[in-house]
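SEQUENCE-TO-STRUCTURE ENTRY
===========================
What this section holds: a protein sequence and its matching fold, both as plain text.
Tokens: labelled as protein backbone structure tokens, with as many entries as the chain has residues.
Question of interest: how does this chain fold, as expressed in backbone structure tokens?
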Amino acid sequence: ADSFGFPKNYFGLDAKYTPFYGKMSWMNKKIIPFEHYFTAGLGNTTVSTGGSGATFHVGTGQNFALSKRFAVNWDFSMMAYSAKSTDGTVQSFNDLMLTVGMSFFYPEATYR
């Protein structure tokens, strides 16, 4: 695994734009609100080779509110950065990530 570098961590700040919001029926028993969003931002990625680089991040995803207190979500992101590779030269990298997660709202949402 030491023959290639990989991202160790990413710190950044993103802007989030939510142009789509809707509701769908689940088995004709429950209404589930959802939103589709886009993100863009800048940050810094540290790689396993010891280097780090300024990072441009873009992504898209959805949140599905299963209750006023709980939601599940997915996010697909692309991060582009330049950092030191295993041979010591600075190279450009593009990382694609698919994440799945959960959100807990406190205090619980009153608008759902």
